[in-house]
């Protein structure tokens, strides 16, 4: 993997992360408020799950 591919991947993450607040700010705000109510363990679980899903997708695509 070269540096250009890494930067392109990071840029795509930013685009995807920005979609919900751009398209539906009230919905994003409600979702963010729900996340604030979660425990650290719950947030870590979702973080781990998203990392594993990303790794599996990368493995399948390469």
Automatic annotation (TrEMBL):
The keyword Membrane applies. Keywords: Membrane, Transmembrane, Transmembrane helix. The chain crosses the membrane at residues 6-23, 43-61. InterPro entries: DUF2065. The keyword Membrane applies. PANTHER family: INNER MEMBRANE PROTEIN, INNER MEMBRANE PROTEIN-RELATED. This is DUF2065 domain-containing protein.
């Amino acid at each position: 993997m070269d540096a250009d591919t890494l930067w392109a991947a990071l840029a795509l993450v930013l685009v995807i992360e920005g979609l919900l607040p751009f398209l539906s700010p009230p919905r994003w705000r409600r979702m963010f408020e729900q996340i604030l109510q979660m425990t650290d363990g719950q947030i870590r679980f979702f973080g781990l799950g998203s990392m594993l899903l990303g790794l599996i997708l990368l493995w399948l695509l390469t």
